[in-house]
Amino acid sequence: xxxxxxxxxxxxxxPALNSNKIDFMTDSQALTVxxxxxxxxxVHDMKNSLSNLRALISQLESQYxxxxxxxxxxxxxxxxxxxxxxxxxxxxxxxxASQFNLNVDESCxxxxxxxxxxxxxxxxxxxxxxxxxxxDDDLFCFCDSTLVSNAISTLVNNAQRYCHxxxxxxxxxxxxxxxxxxxxxxxxxxxxxxxxxxxxxGIDVVTGNTGLGLFFVATIAKMHHQGGSHGYIKxxxxxxxxxxxxxxxxP
Amino acid sequence: xxxxxNSQHILVAEDQAVMRETLKHxxxxxxxQRIVEAESGVNAIxxxxxxSFDIVLCDYNLxxxxxxxxxxxxxxxxxxxxxxxxxxxxxxxxNPGMVLSAxxxxxxxxxxxxxxxxxxxxxxxxxxxxxxxxADIEIELDQGNLYQAIGNxxxxxxxxxxxxxxxxxxxxxxxxxxxxxxxxxxxxxxxVLLERDLPWARLGLAVIAFMQADYEQAIEGLQDIILQxxxxxxxxxxxxxxxxxxxxxxxxLTALNQAIELSPQTILRQQQIALLADKAExxxxxxxxxxxxIKLGKHSVHKSSRDFSxxxxxxxxxxxxxxxxxxxxxxxxxxxxxxxxxxxxxxxxSEIYGALGKNVLAQESYxxxxxxxEQFGQEAPRELRLEIAxxxxxxGDAEVFDHIMQDLIKTNIDDKKFLETITQxxxxxxxxxxxxxxxxxxxxxxxxxxxNGVSLFKEGKIKEALGILEQAVGNLPxxxxxxxxxxxxxxxDLKTSGSTMAKVQKAQAYINKAVQLGITHDKIGGLQTExxxxxxxKLK
Lengths: 251, 540
Prior knowledge:
heterodimer, A: 251 residues, alpha+beta, 5-stranded mixed β-sheet, two-stranded antiparallel ribbon, 5 helices, 22% strand, disordered N terminus, B: 540 residues, mainly alpha, 5-stranded parallel β-sheet, globular
């Protein structure tokens, strides 16, 4: 006889997620399995497997010195997306299980943008899309730079799907915030993705294609705080290139 | 100077052939010429013994043997990495600095899989720039010259490079803590916190409270940090220390267990738990931790023969049986040609045979212990020497007991806590006055030598004064007063009879030793300033 108890819940979650259990009852014994923990370790395993897959792809790719088949672009793109999603799920799990905190330090914003461009470099090399990065060399920001560059990178990755030919990545100081912008020249965000303050942005967006990416960056933005203010995101269609504009505000 | 991979010796340690090939491919594309591969931790260490690498790219996961962190620890321990080498730990862990961190052995950077060539190059360049910027500090630290390192850190801070500022402040504060200059460290941490609530600055303040024996404030601060930054694992270690200092062993164990749950691979914490639990006579917890430490120790430079003897002794008390001899042979197998391990094994063997009633064998092992003790005793850790002394006393060997105790008192004469332990041990076997009179005698000897040296100095017999005191250092190596007086006399000598390079270096070595012995900045700082002045004005 097997009794399954599954819990459905929404983010952001209370810190009690890891106490939700699925009890597998058998005739002789009862096994207690922590479902979120299994989920997390499986995601970790998938990430490892994906990483081998990517290594294989890049080896295959190196066997085509001149004209690489266009499928490589798609392979790289999809595996990037997959990896980012897995990473974000894992991080969200850890935040929920109190196994996570930001690793904040003063970072040079130029370095963060360089890292994002680097992450996208192999992909961009295979496409016609232009990624422009702009910021002052002496702009500094207190943040978890690894996490922030990963989160923004995911969104740049998404922007590649929806833009026409150009993505502008920029950052500047605005009052007490450092703001990162991702702008593109595509058709803009659909109505249900538009949010102009941290209050209205949240759960209801977690439905569409990029829901996870936006939710993730909103979550980590909120974790950055200084004094009474904390970070937030904005989505609008006020891009200087005519398409969607995403803004990340970090205090 | 820009990084050019062309001339760099690069080690790629990665167990999976596919990943290894990919990494090599990326590196060759970036112009690298000299790449060595290793598919396991053991081979990585072997390669580092052969070649002095500029760059090591090491995967965390290296199959069944050592992991990447253990490779790093071993390489540092064996001094296989030059101070300017770049060690990058490759991992698929999202926040590796927190999960994999070991307090003193952090890699220069982590690289999170997957990454492409451009990301690798960026990372290498950033590490290279940082290493170059900090080279003046590192080179002095490598030599044990803390004050010179501080001087160079100050110079770099004065250059006002915003990119380096926070890192330099952190280093400057840590160096201040190392010379017990709590005032400077505190000022830096408070300044940083005014700007931003950073966990390392808060941790620094808690450590200062601990060093000032304000345990209540330390505990409060640390609990605060943990609440807000649950992955700040060092906070758990300090919290355990603070609880232990107040005598709350249970709370100390809880703190360490929390840290282990978050980062299970750390052998040092398991060892800490074992010792604490032993102290509190929580045998089950201690044994579990000893077992974990033994298991983790298989591939770690932190493995300790003490874990084996701790476990064996607990098991022996509970249920003496001949299976315990297997533990002894495991111990010898894990530590071939290690004098400490042989001493422990012989001591244990004697106890086990004794408990099993095999008196002839017990006596044989005991004699082996005494012989090994004559050979290597002085190098053994003091807790083991205390144990050997007790075993000797039980056998009626009062002379050996006496000899070990005297030596332990001499080498630990400034350590009040340990002297208390010695007094306790002696009181149970020899009666109350034994230890006290021994300690008194050593202290008297110290006072005599010191007075003798000081009066020779006052008579102007500098050479003789130094002769007497330096001889005493051989006999009482860890005494602060003697080391401090030697340093003072040397400085006087430099002032009056001129500097030579050799004299300056010798004085510096004594200052470094003084810092090592825990002499605080307020006592030694002035001497260092004077030495620096003498060295720069007279040595031209």
